Every structure is written in C-alpha cells, then in structure tokens.
Amino acid sequence: MDLSKCLAKPSTPERSSTAQCTQESSAWFGEVNFLSKMDKEVAVLQRKLEAELKNFKDSQKEFNKLVQTQQQLDGQFFENKSIMEELQMLKPTNTVYKLYGPVLVKQDLDESKQNVGKRIEYISKELKRCAENINQLEQKQDKYRANLQKLQQQYQSQMALAKQ
C-alpha cells in the first residue's frame, strides 16, 4: 500500500485521483485498524496466558507443600508403627516411661498402646486427606496445563498472523 501518491502536492502528475486516494487510504486505515485489533487480541491472549501461568505456578507451590506434608506424615506414621510394635513385645509387667519435656514419667502399658494407636489412626486419616488433596491438585494442574497449551497455541497463531 503506497499512500505517497495521495500525499503528493496537488499540482504534481504523481498525485492520484481523489477517488483512488480515498480507496487507498481507507484500505490502509483498514489495515491499521486490523493490526490494532490484532494487537488487542494478542494482548488479551497474553494476559490470559500470564494469569493461567500464575495459577499453575501457585498450584505447583501448593502441591510441593502437600508433598512435603505427606512425607512428614509418612515419617511420623512409620515411627509410631515401630513404637507400637515395640509396645506389643512388652509384657504387662514391664514398665513404660513417657518423656514429658525433660522428665520421664511412668505410664501404664495399656494407656501407652491406646495413645500410640490413636496417633496412628489420626496420622492415617491425615495421610488419606493429604493424598486426596494431592490427587485433586494434580487434576487441577492437568486442566491448567491443557489451558496453557491451548492459549499458547492461540497466541502463537495470532503472532504468526500479525507477522504476515
């Protein structure tokens, strides 16, 4: 599109007719409007992409925290399981002590078994809850990944159109 002929002085022979200039200028402005529309669409896509990426990164952080919590709970679970096994090997006549701060306090064997059993039960429930949260978060991340791929493809196609 060459608007230089339309912009030439009226007395020069290079100047196109008014009708031709009007057609050329409206075509040129149409391209500009199309490009600005494309720029707006690209900007909107870019914002959507950035927002979706932020959501995905936030879910990754949450996922990492949940995995860390699950690992801690696993450690506590196996520690309490081994304590329960040790308590099961004891005879009713054996003495059990529990550490309260810097002091060892005598505790009934059955009471110790009940306390450890309750801890194991509680930790098991927490592990189950944590695993469910991890599964839900994995599904959420899969949706974010799919949306990111879709938005990225749209963005790339818009950029390719803008270059043409």
UniProtKB/TrEMBL annotation:
CDD domains for the chain: Prefoldin_6
The entry's keywords: Chaperone, Coiled coil
A single GO molecular function term of this UniProt record: unfolded protein binding
Classification via Pfam families: Prefoldin_2 (PF01920)
InterPro entries: PFD_beta-like (IPR002777), Prefoldin (IPR009053)
Location of the region described as Disordered in the Swiss-Prot/TrEMBL record: 1-20
Record carries keyword Chaperone: yes
Coiled-coil annotated spans: 35-62, 120-161
UniProt keyword annotation of Manganese present: no
GO cellular component: cytoplasm; prefoldin complex
Source taxon at top rank: Eukaryota
Any one GO biological process: protein folding
Quaternary organization: Heterohexamer of two PFD-alpha type and four PFD-beta type subunits.
UniProt similarity note: Belongs to the prefoldin subunit beta family.
Name this protein carries in UniProt: Probable prefoldin subunit 6
Organism: Anopheles atroparvus
